[in-house]
Amino acid sequence: MTSTTVERRAIITGASSGIGKETALAFAKAGIDVALVSRSRKNLEMVAAAARAAGVEAKVYPFDLAELEQVRSWIEEITTDFAPITILVNNAGMAYTRYLSETPLSDWQRLIDLNLTSVFQCIQGVLPAMRAQHQGTIINVASIAAKQPLPEWGAYSVSKAGMIALSKTLAAEESRHGIRVVSICPGAVNTPLWDADTVQVQLNRSGM
């Protein structure tokens, strides 16, 4: 089986809006079937309808990736239900603005759980299938904030820097299985997480 034949199905987390939604639609236009993961079934169904209009198969999986104990089994379920999965896009995430000195442990943990630990769990869920087919691409959506932190975005920046380190480590470990792992670091994107006024204030504070 050629790589062109195999690599036609992707899991995309955070697919109901923003970067995840646009990634799903771009994949659909490229002829890649998509498994869409997010909490909102309603929004996922709208994205799936648009993907199907492009001529591909799209299925929705309304999972809450904050439920860490369930994430790996959910992803394993998708790799069976929607096989063969050879692309995973880890895009789901959250952000809040608060000085690190004022950040409660509960808020810190919630953000790290979703932005980093759930990514780790998703990856563990797809690796057995990708190793078996000796092919796979894992794309972790980090952020420019990992490289250029801003005031009040400390927890978010740390989580995204961790994602970059996770990607580099996995790339070294999994290349022998034919699996590529990369991270991308978008700058400011007009998504539900983006508040231009807030970020501009923080840029001004940092002298940028």
What can you see in these coordinates?
There is one protein chain. With 208 residues, this protein is of the alpha/beta class. It has one domain: Rossmann fold. The chain contains 7 helices and 6 strands. Strands 3-2-1-4-5-6 form a 6-stranded parallel sheet, with helices on both faces. β5, α6 and β6 form a beta-alpha-beta unit. α5 packs parallel to α6. It is globular and about 50 Å long. The N and C termini lie far apart (51 Å). 37% of the residues are buried.
Strand residues, percent: 5-15%
Second rung of CATH, namely the architecture: 3-Layer(aba) Sandwich
Gyration radius (Cα, Å) is 17 Å
The name of the CATH superfamily reads NAD(P)-binding Rossmann-like Domain
Terminus-to-terminus distance: 51 Å
User: Count of DSSP E strands?
Assistant: 6
Q: What summary fits the major beta sheet?
A: 6 strands, parallel
- Uncertain stretches: 1-5, 199-208
* CATH topology term: Rossmann fold
Task: Put the structure in a nutshell.
With 208 residues, the chain is α/β, with parallel strands linked by helices.
Brief descriptors of the model:
208 residues, alpha/beta, Rossmann fold, 6-stranded parallel beta sheet, globular, disordered N terminus, disordered C terminus
